[in-house]
Amino acid sequence: MLWSELGPAQMCFLALSNERTTYRVSDQLLLDPIQTQTPVYPSSTSDFQNNFAIQTTIYQNPYSNLSFQIVDHDLRMSSNQKNRNFQIEAFKHKVVVDPMYADKTWRLLEHAINEIYNQNASGLSFEELYRNAYNMVLHKYGEKLYTGLVTTMTSHLVTMSRRIENAHREMFLEELNNNWADQNKALQMIRDILMYMDRSYVPSSRKTPVHELGLNLWRDNVIHLTGIQTRLQNTLLQLIHKERTGQVINQGLMRNIIKMLTDLGPSVYQVEFERPFLEASGDFYRIESQEFIECCDCGDYLQRAERRLNEEIDRVSHYLNPKSEVKITNVVETEMIANHMTRLVHMEDSGLVNMIVDDKYEDLRRIYNLFHRIPNGLSTIRDVMTSYLRETGMQLVSDPEKLKDPVEFVQSLLNKKDKYDRIISLAFNNDKSFQNALNSSFEFFINRNPRSPEFISLFVDCKLRKDLKGVGEEDVEAVLDKVMMMFRYLQEKDVFERYYKQHLAKRLLSGKDGSDDAERSLVLKLKTECGYQFTSKLEGMFTDMKTSRDTNDRFHLNHGADLGDRPSLVVQVLTTGSWPTQPSATCNLPTELMTICDRFRSYYLGTHSGRRLSWQTNMGTADLKASFGKGQRHELTVSTYQMCVLMLFNETDRLTYKELEQATEIPSLDLKRCLQSMACVKGKNVLKKEPMSKDIGDEDVFFVNEKFTSKFFKVKIGTVVAQKETEPEKHETRQRVEEDRKPQIEAAIVRIMKARRVLDHNNVISEVIKQLHARFLANPGEIKKRIESLIERDFLERDGSDRKLYQYVA
Question: Cullin family profile domain spans which residues (predicted)?
Fold first, then answer.
């Protein structure tokens, strides 16, 4: 226990150093809180015997009626002596206390407080003042001390409030700030003097601590004074209004005043400043936003709104309470953005759609950042963007001009995708919700055109044939990634697979694949996306090409000497299941070629037992040496059908269409395409026709163009092939696709029923659609037909009591 905490009826022992000592507990030591020593209590009787001697000491407290007497005892006893008891006896006479002690002491303290408020505290003895306050509390005069403090402080604060109230208009805040600083300084000194009262009397009496008391008195006698309260609010709001209109104000003074209100308590700050501040701000921005939106376009309006928002955030950081930032920004967002949100995004000639069309990334970034702060703000932007994207996308996929060129059609889709990807990346912070909306929109309108799978395959065909020749590996991968992006949007991926297989076959067989690595890379990407089953046949086509090269090498190694000067033959042996071969009509090959074809057939069947070969003349090519008038010689690269036609002109000069058809037995449609490419294409017209027109008629006459010339020795004559399928071809392809889907649907149904055993009709439909979604969008009507077929073949059966319930038959 410390000396400063001892009462008048307490006694302690001081540690001594092995000598007989008499210590008198003096009044001075008892009353002086500065001279503190740690008491030492004896732990046993032997401690008393060895270390202490106690003599009768009389202590008389001048401020109490009690006095004590310690009876002298010598505690240094030998070991055979008995312990002697000691006792404390009351004084025999009564001590008289000064009845004016409390009043005198308070007058001293009151004078000191007045001097502090009058800024004359330099001559005060704070040690003496502390001791006086301490003694008043110690002798139960805490209430008098506390009440006197309240009265004295209130008196000075009333005086301060008059000075503040009488301050000149421009000096009002300065006067308030100066007096607040004086109050804080005085309050700090008073609290130091009354520290003991703050620590003992205030908690036990449930009074307000001195510092908090000073703040409350300042609040009640200064801030809540009618003449100051209203004036303070108006002055602060006027200064903020001036700053908003571009004038310079004293931010340091504002910061001090706002901090004063904050120190007085959250409720004071909110009631006296924050609420009227937010109301005034709402009115200000409501009027300003209406003025702006009437005279500005969307981009300018958003710039001003963003600037105002940043100004308010800076204002909070400079002198407002940090907790006000959310509230004031909400006011700006509501008045300047939320209340005009719909009008802004649909603003004529400058709204969101115009920003997208004109690639205004800065404006788009600004509208995203501002609307992001508003509930449902981003959904508003997203809905407008999605609506516009779907509208323009539908126009694109149904534009007759775009549909004439499949490559341009797909390129337009890719350009649109790149445009929106840049917007989402540069302006919309790669927001996942916008990316999902973009993907959903593309999937929506791409699948509205049933020819999209065919067109995407034709786009790939064009790129891999010629556009990617000589292009770097990274650029090739970028193009292939874009193709895969379009592929993912397709719901009928199996239709794309059929067209892609046809186009890949033509590229491989004609040697027009620009890059074998690019071809294999795309097949690998398709395999990763859709699985092994999707690309197994495509990979088989590459395997056949390699096997065919080995077969041709062995054939020429064994029979090369026997062929002599006959035409050289390169045969590609294709596996029927892997290639999109079709039963082709027999074509009458030239005699020179039939001999070597028969020789190869005999060799192949001799080395591979159990196999059959059928010539696919519609898929072959030939190189011919041709002589024209004036000694013009050229080497023509043509299709097998074109070769058959040209070889007939070695025997006759003129042939009609009917004669060519009978002699070659080439299908009519293919024959017309061959003749068109050789007679109607400028620069490739090795034949002439009468009458001259682009269409081929049954009575047209064809003959060799003796005047044909070309600056190239090797002339490549391609077949006029419609990039898009004709209606009959399209119908035929669709039928083949539907036939290929049937076993896939049946397999899915059996897998589901085998796992579930019993399932109702609707769940079967939904499960099948879900399983086949990666390849195509299954038609519920077709699924129902496949279920009926499986029931007929005893894979499934209907439940006896519920016909909509199916059971798996093991």
Answer: 451-679
